[in-house]
Amino acid sequence: xxxxxxxxxxxxxxxxxxxxxxxxxxxxxxxxxxxxxxxxxxxxxxxxxxxxxxxxxxxxxxxxxxxxxxxxxxxxxxxxxxxxxxxxxxxxxxxxxxxxxxxxxxxxxxxxxxxxxxxxxxxxxxxxxxx
Length: 131
Hints:
This protein has a single domain (7-125), classed as 2,3-Dihydroxybiphenyl 1,2-Dioxygenase, domain 1 (Roll), CATH 3.10.180.10. By secondary structure, it is α/β, with parallel strands linked by helices. The strands form 2 sheets. Strands 1-4-3-2 form a 4-stranded mixed beta sheet, covered by helices on one side. Strands 5-8-7-6 form a 4-stranded mixed beta sheet, covered by helices on one side. The protein has helices at 14-25, 77-89, and strands spanning 7-11, 31-37, 44-50, 53-60, 69-73, 93-100, 109-114, 120-125. Helix 1 packs antiparallel against helix 2.
């Protein structure tokens, strides 16, 4: 059973964040599912997830929030590698190359990027390496 229903990040530019998250999350099987212009002038929202549920939302605001770390579950180590590669190509900054983090546990394979607002975004696979 999942613990969280959804997470929302406040970003300075929905367009810049969308360019990053569209590419970085695609290898993990997540896509932009919902886009809204709220009734409040200038409020823009975008929801990512796996159909039909958006669980990760970005909302454009004049000021982004403070430090934050979000980890996305990846189906494989190859998907973690692709997340990192695509995120870098979309303008993200490396914050930890793909690899094992055995200090977490023996099969913890993750990669870290900083998104356009400086949020620490991770993809992690907990499964052993495929044979």
